[in-house]
Amino acid sequence: MEELHELLVNYNSYNIKEKYQRSWSKQFCEPTFPIYWQKVFEILRYENREQRVVEIGCGQGDVTSIFCHLGFKNIKAFERDTDMAEVAKEKIATLFSRNDIIVSAESPQSPIVSDILVLVNCAYDDGVKTKEEYLRKLQGFYDIAGTPALFILEVIDSSYTIEDENFPCQIRLDSKDIERLFPNADIGSWETYRYPQNKRTKRLYIIRKKQ
Are 82 and 104 in contact (CB under 8 A)? Predict the structure, then answer.
């Protein structure tokens, strides 16, 4: 983990143009990376590298870098913001000589087969008016990725009750929501951010199909 951390800090500090820097991306220039990034690394380091990985909302490719660094071969990472996708493409190509990973789109445009789905630090809530609609959207991402055996999902936690137009109440979830969405899964979780120490409260869920 330390080797990849140093690699990303060096790259991000000197190669990301100021116009593309965001508060969330600047975290990857710091001595300590976000908890969700560390957890994703810890989880995937024990997974079979032959598994097919899909990431939705890859941003500038800092989580995608984990898959490459660990040696996963079959990776597709989707990002709908074209500027962020270009930053990610250049980063992954420069650091790992991979040009076949980043896709400039919100998610797969047609069903694909994957073993691992990762959706962290990302909340696509466009047009969502109710919690049920948001849950259906998450289910849609899972289904189009081929209902993989492992789903790593970070969400805004329902314990965050501050008025926030960027992260409205209907996309704030608790463990019961996740259990209802995936009734046939083994589910574990970690808190990744806590308000007011952080801007919001978030939780990372590890969702595995029961054998």
Answer: yes
Q: What is the pLDDT of residues 151-177, one digit of tens each?
A: 999 999 999 999 998 899 999 999 999
Asked if 28 and 62 count as a contact pair (C-beta separation under 8 A), the reply is yes
Contact (Cβ atoms closer than 8 angstroms) between residue 105 and residue 82? no
The encoded tokens of residue 119 equal 């959706």
- Give the pTM: 0.95
- Would you state the structure tokens that stand for residue 169, as one six-digit string? 């109440």
Angle, helix 82-96 to helix 2-15, in steps of 10 degrees: 120
For 130, phi then psi, to 5°, come to: -135, 165
State pLDDT tens for residues 95-147: 999 999 999 999 999 999 999 999 999 888 888 999 999 999 999 999 999 99
Q: What is the pLDDT of residues 14-39, one digit of tens each?
A: 999 888 888 878 889 999 999 999 99
Average pLDDT of span 35-44: 97
Q: In the chain, how many domains are there?
A: 1
Phi and psi at residue 143, to the nearest 5°: -65, -45
Rounded distance between C-alpha atoms, residue 200 and residue 24, angstroms: 12
Q: Which residue range forms the structural domain that includes residue 142?
A: 2-209
Q: Which residues pair with 52 in a beta bridge?
A: none
What is the CATH classification number for the domain harbouring 117?
Answer: 3.40.50.150
Residue in the structure block whose two tokens are 């896709």: 103
